[in-house]
């Protein structure tokens, strides 16, 4: 029995009621629209983003190639007391671009290597150094994460817009109650006893 009362309290804006105002109906539609856009729009945004990312990563694997490069300077191991970002550090390397020209640039290489050591770097089709393309597993995880973030971002934005609209309705209701009280309040006067 209490379940029916609870449902009635939740959906009071949708039922005919002499105390229901036009603003209550508008608010009910705003809440419904926000939830519909969050549910459907968030899912669509997430799927579209994940699909776009999923198409980009295989293209990167096709466009990027690994090439042998020569280390131009020593890369010392980090000292024990010094902060280190891991086993790799940027160093100057020389490699051959797809057009046959020799180029130099900076790439992440393992620490502790001597000048003249051969290392593997990645380049795009123009011969510019780039990062290694993600593996299939990494691409799937990243596409899923990007899709989730896109869905949550849309949901958050829609929720904020809905909250602002409801806040404006509340301000309008409070102002209306103030105007009505200004009309009714003086009629009550000081009639005590």
UniProtKB/TrEMBL annotation:
Region called Disordered, residue ranges: 78-101
Keywords carried by this UniProt record: Membrane, Transmembrane, Transmembrane helix
Top-level division of the source organism's lineage: Bacteria
Positions of transmembrane segments: 25-48, 143-165
Protein name as it appears in the record: Membrane protein SCJ1.26
Species assigned in the record: Streptomyces dengpaensis
């Amino acid at each position: 029995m209490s379940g029916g009362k609870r449902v009635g309290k939740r959906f009071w804006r949708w039922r005919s009621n002499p105390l229901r105002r036009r603003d209550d109906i508008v608010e009910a539609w705003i809440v419904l629209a926000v939830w519909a856009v969050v549910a459907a729009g968030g899912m669509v945004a997430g799927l579209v983003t994940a699909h776009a990312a999923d198409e980009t990563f295989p293209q990167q694997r096709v466009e990027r190639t690994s090439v042998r490069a020569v280390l131009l300077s020593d890369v010392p191991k980090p000292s024990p007391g010094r902060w280190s970002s891991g086993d790799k550090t940027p160093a100057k390397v020389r490699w051959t671009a797809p057009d046959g020209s020799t180029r130099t640039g900076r790439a992440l290489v393992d620490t502790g290597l001597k000048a003249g050591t051969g290392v593997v770097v990645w380049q795009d089709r123009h011969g510019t150094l780039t990062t290694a393309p993600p593996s299939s597993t990494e691409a799937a995880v990243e596409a899923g994460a990007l899709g989730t973030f896109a869905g949550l971002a849309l949901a958050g934005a829609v929720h904020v817009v809905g909250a602002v609209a409801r806040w404006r309705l509340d301000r309008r209701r409070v102002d209306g109650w103030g105007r009505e009280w200004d009309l009714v309040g003086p009629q009550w006067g000081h009639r005590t006893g």
